[in-house]
Amino acid sequence: MAREVTPARKITVTIAAWAVGIVIAFPIIWMILTSFKTELEASSLPPKFVFFDWTVENYAIVQQRSDYFHHAMNSLIIAGGSVLLALIIAVPAAWAMAFAPTERTRGTLLWMLSTKMMPPVGVMVPIYLFFRDFGLLDTRIGLVGLLCLANLPIVIWMLFTYFKEIPKDILEAARMDGATIGKELIYVLTPMAVPGIASTLLLNFILAWNEAFWTLVLTSSNAAPLTAFIASYSSPEGLFWAKLSAASTLAIAPILVLGWFSQRQLVRGLTFGAVK
Amino acid sequence: MATQQTQALGRLLVSPAVGLLLLISIVPLAATVYFSFLNYNLLDPGSVDWARFDNYTYFLTDPGFISALINTLIIVGAVLAITVVLGVLVALLMDQAVVGLTLVRLLVIAPFFVMPTVSALIWKNLLMHPVSGYFAWIATSLGLQPIDWFTNYPLLSIILIISWEWLPFAALILLTALQSLDVEQKEAAEMDGASGLSTFFYITLPHLARPITVVILIETIFLLTVFAEIYVTTGGGERTNNLAFLIYSAALKEYDIGAASAGGLVAVVLANIVAIFLVRLVGKNLDA
After folding, report:
1. What is the pLDDT of residue A272?
2. Which residues are registered as beta bridge partners of B256?
3. Considering only CA atoms, which of B252, B249, B244, B251 is closest in space to residue B222?
4. Where are the domains of chain A?
5. Domain ranges (residues) in chain B
6. ipTM exceeds 0.95, yes or no
7. How far is A22 from chain B (nearest CA, A)?
8. Comparing C-alpha atoms, which of B228, B273, B265, B222 is closest to residue B65?
9. Domain B66-259, CATH among 1.10.287.4070, 1.10.10.10, 1.10.3720.10, 3.40.50.620
């Protein structure tokens, strides 16, 4: 079965793969290192890798000057709220399409997918005016609603592909044994559906956390999530690299951790089940 | 097959999602169409009147539109070329007997999870800064003249940043596809005396054709509307405006609602051309 791999080949590919991995991740590694330097060392040449005076002062300054936690909380509420809301709408829909498909289900699914292809700038003007007229500009509730609708097609699609894999025979067996629809739902379907729902939640939370069109266009300070908060560093005052790095590290750390758990779902979710 | 009762229940469960998506996809689009035929400036909201096709002629003949369209196509084309070619190579490498593959995969996938504003600012300042950026240090150490990335090659700089963000996506999808390739098929080819290269061109690459198509279509949809990377690095301008940024500037910097709406519809048409192919491809997969 397995091909014989010579030790020499194994060593070569291992070194090459690690080198490639480190080069690709280097900007992130470098950013994390810089966040622990003083501003002076952050821009000094030659660059210092590990032999500098490690300090956490930048993290304290970022919180003090710009209230990092306020923006992190906004990110959490906007990303979390929009995904939970989307799940409430999507779970029944995906369940119905997977278990009681009609001749129209295929068309409905593809139409839903096509709504996701709409470029945000195509509808930016009316959405902006709507937000302005209803006092939703720079509010979290406005973004929760909008991002919920923006991600709804992906949420439904991901759930659908997961629900589709639950064997239908099991349902029939349960029904034969006299299970009611309620019992069927609690004891049979839910345990089998939970992993798919969890993966969907995870990936869409990540997408909403990193969303950087609507959050930049529709917020200014009150409801600004971390994407918009980091964007405020684009007009710098004086030395700011270490502080930028600290703020950035804080902004991406939770997602890096969550993201690494969701690698497999990423492929499936973002290709709408076209690659598994 | 589902009974009539469950079908009725099914329709009931699907209708909220369908209703909301109809609302969000049709109402704003219709409003955009409506605005695109108006003379409407937010600075002068009192004098709104019909513009007929003036917004379209204004937007489409604006020299800024042509350069933005070209920039859009350059960004999409260049990032696709870079990420697909490098993605195939990275995926092939990771499909080997690598020690510690799980960790390597974590390193490779990491950039995809970095929010666009962070990626762009870290690259612009920490790496591409002409004096104390990391690249400048490498260039000086090699005795070369450091490149002033954003002054001299702003569009290329943005393309490099976006390619870094999307390379993990391409590599991960292609790796997933490679792992489903039948090992025995490759072995048989090798036993028949096929060289590594011909195995790649006659077995591996055809197997990757479909996932590569998926990568191209999905990336194109996102790349057509690149926004944050331009917003935080150059803030737009003739040299780096893409269509999305031009429309944003027209709406929220010049407050020209009519022209921005006309431009928005141009972007919708462009995206739809790609969308048709993607929806077809996914639809085929649904039947399989």
Report:
1. 72
2. B41
3. B244
4. 7-59, 65-270
5. 66-259
6. no
7. 6
8. B265
9. 1.10.3720.10
The residues near B98 (Cβ < 8 Å, ≥ 6 apart) are: A13, A14, A17, A18, B104
Chain B's closest residue to A132, CA to CA, is: B42
User: Could you give the C-alpha distances from B146 to A33, A45, B179, in angstroms and in order?
Assistant: 23, 13, 41
User: Which pair of structure tokens corresponds to residue B243?
Assistant: 């269509």
Peptide bond into A46 cis (omega under 30): yes
CB within 8 Å: B218 and A31: no
Q: Where are the beta strands (DSSP E) in chain A?
A: none
Q: What share of chain A is helix, strand, coil (3-state, %, to 5)?
A: 75, 0, 25
Residue A1 confidence class, pLDDT cut points 50, 70, 90: very low
The percentage of residues in chain B with a pLDDT greater than 70, rounded to a whole number, is: 98
> Which tokens hold the place of A91?
């779970």
Domain A65-270 in CATH 3.40.30.10? The answer is no
Tokens of B259: 């022209």
Entry pTM? 0.91
> Chain B contacts of A156, Cβ < 8 Å?
17
Q: How far apart, in whole angstroms, are the C-alpha atoms of residue A192 and residue A159?
A: 12
DSSP state of B204: I
Asked if the Cβ–Cβ distance from B18 to A233 is below 8 Å, we say no
**What span, in angstroms and rounded, lies between the C-alpha atoms of B94 and B37?**
53
- CA–CA gap between residue A34 and residue A240 (Å, rounded): 11
Q: Which two tokens stand for residue B164?
A: 């870094």
